[in-house]
Amino acid sequence: MNLLQMTIPELQIAMNEGRLTAHELTLFYLKRIASIDHGDPKYNSVFMVNPDALNQAKVLDLERQQGTERSMMHGIPVLLKDNINTGDKQTTTAGARILANHYAKEDSFLVQNLRQQGAIILGKTNLTELACFKTFTGVNGFSSLAGYVLCPWNIEEDPSGSSTGSAVSMALKLAPVAIGTETGGSIMSPSKKNGVVGLKPTIGLVSRSGIVPISSTLDTAGPMGPSVANVAALLSSMKTNDPSDPVTLTHSHNNIDYTVFLDTKEVKRIGIDKKQYEKVSEDEQHVFDATCKKLENLGYELVEMELPEVKQIYPIMKYEFKTMINKYFSDEGLDITLEGMIKYNQNNEKDNLKYGQDVLLEAQYQTSGKLVEQEYINALQERIDVTKAVHDIFKKHKLDIVYVLPYTSIGPECGFPTLSIPLGLDSKGMPIGSYFMANHFEEGRLIEVGHRLEQTLNLQLNPLKK
């Protein structure tokens, strides 16, 4: 069995047939993390592993032997970005030294749900400190607590952020799946850069309770993995309705098995937005053109169109951060505030301020924390206006999804689900990824198109065998 090439549905079959156990699978990945991620070079994508992972695997193996299979994620190891609370023997730090010894009071709602579904929390991945919300001049993948995460395709390249460790761990295949978080592109960007599949869900599909926050309007967690099938399986166990996160109550309580969309053929029309075509490299143009032809060969009708632009996503983050981060500290029983964190960093400048903290300073001293500023209200209004405009475009052109070159902030600002899958390598040997976007709560359409395209491309990307 080649565990690295097996999808989660295939791993489930192997475990049900007695050819594999969750304990064996977990140990396999623990060895891989030690030998590859913490070898030479040290890619540093995994911050720590769960000391109870193997024991949890044994319990889940026993359940399977007794006839219980909780879900498609039963016995499957998952890596979590280290801004997601786990109420266990692992810390939750967001890469900040002030949180180095922070053991969360309890699991985040997301992690509670994953454990109930039988997932094994394998460990925590490194991230750009505070999910890229500390400084404008920082380096992606760097945190004052854990140092640098390296791009496995070229250690001199920017690995992108902020879910850097989650993306790099998937490129190195250190687990079947990982979870990242996104506020303004932090799942899509590192997924594209590191040649893995990333899906940013509709805002409200996944609970944010117990995740170190930036913005209540924009934050979400999402699955990342080496294949669309694995991402679909994990997403099925992430969808929740959380009373403490009201936006998650805006969709149905029905469970959805997103793996069924791996075999559907419901998508008919794909919008193509290429207004940035002349601004990207020839390699990206070539891959985009080739992908459009492949989509047509798969039977999809391509419709040229243009999406509106967004300009005010940062003010939403800027004004909401103070309230959100202080609430998180309070809920965790920590004697910390945003202002206190700033002063802590200043008092430990050598260790904590290698790239400054100008974003934190803006959030603390240029906002009231009461969300009454006109700039903030204007940004929210832009979000409403652009959301309506995008809905109108989907309706006018009868679109199922859109394919964008090279990137748009519409997905994170307006809460639309987005998907990136690797499409190939450029002339320098670096991955080129896609950017697909669907209407709200239409993740299944992204999964269908992504999987069909993935099967057609049949790429075997491996940064360790360049």
From TrEMBL:
SUPFAM superfamilies (UniProt xref): Amidase signature (AS) enzymes
Pfam families, A to Z: Amidase (PF01425)
GO function terms (MF aspect): amidase activity
Domain Amidase: 24-406
Enzyme Commission (EC) number: 3.5.1.4
Matching InterPro entries: Amidase_dom (IPR023631), AS_sf (IPR036928)
Keyword terms of this UniProt record: Hydrolase
Protein name: Amidase
Organism: Candidatus Xianfuyuplasma coldseepsis
Lineage: Bacteria, Bacillati, Mycoplasmatota, Mollicutes, Candidatus Izemoplasmatales
